[in-house]
């Protein structure tokens, strides 16, 4: 989608949304602190520093040149332990000096199909005293590390090298480039954030959400979700307009997939079927962290054709439908950022997500992609490690299937860490 066409779509959406936004109650900022700001995007201390995306004035005090990342947290009870920081100045990767990353989140990881793991990160900050605090809406890092037991090692970024550790320009070889731009206009489009990714036949596909407005902790409003495509290993990305799922019942020429049920598919996780199952499954939630999880599936060659998607209905006699409106929840709310994978040790599908209501990172299992899913098993509580969110399964175990490795982010540090769950301590029915 061209920048002009994207602007027209989003501005039209914003006009239609104006009355809706008035009744949503978007009073407070989210609760993160990149560069020492009181909130992540949308709080007044960021105003002049980052411009009209935040609709405020006056830049508040900053905490030096980087985000306030602490030492790796220690968890001495339960089934899950932090392994290492992946990002930040305290990480072995020193992303502050090597990639201009002092604060970021998410770290969605997937096998690129040719010996690398790609990782997609959300809103990213660098030098906190630089113009706009070196804010990028999202970016990609790459690694060949298949043993996460001591964390993830990311190689140097090399200009023009599509297999190097980061996408960098020759003029700024120590500054990771943004992947998908945003308009940066509050109430229209503040940012664009990856939510899921997968490789099919050497092509990379990344699902992302266009955020219209931040709300209170765990709440935000999206314009849409869509799929961006990269045919050069994440070096460049192009949004396919046919995959846009608008989060409002509006009519935009050339975008046909518009109905109220698209709101269920704003944040996603991809899963490959196990064994002879040829389908790719897409689990999704509405915007924010308080919705249920829904499910659709498609054959790999149809990922960009939403008309070929099938939606889980919950009807045992007719479980899959081409109608989005028949999509039923597979896991009840609240489900925040999630990831799903097949686990060899457990011989089950495994879902990780955050529960915003009780402050836990939870795991559920199922023998079929559509479930039924087990009751949640707690991996972390807020008492053990507060402010942790967005658990994404890492696609390698280093050869030891006792452990499940996943990345997660913590508000206090606004950086991504690798964690490890001891599956021998997990009972499954």
UniProtKB/TrEMBL annotation:
Organism: Williamsia maris
Stretch forming the signal peptide: 1-32
InterPro entries named among the record's database cross-references: DUF4185, TAT_signal
Annotated protein name in UniProt: DUF4185 domain-containing protein
The DUF4185 domain, residue ranges: 91-420
Keyword terms of this UniProt record: Signal
Key word Signal present: yes
One Pfam family linked to the record: DUF4185
UniProt region (Disordered), positions on chain: 73-100
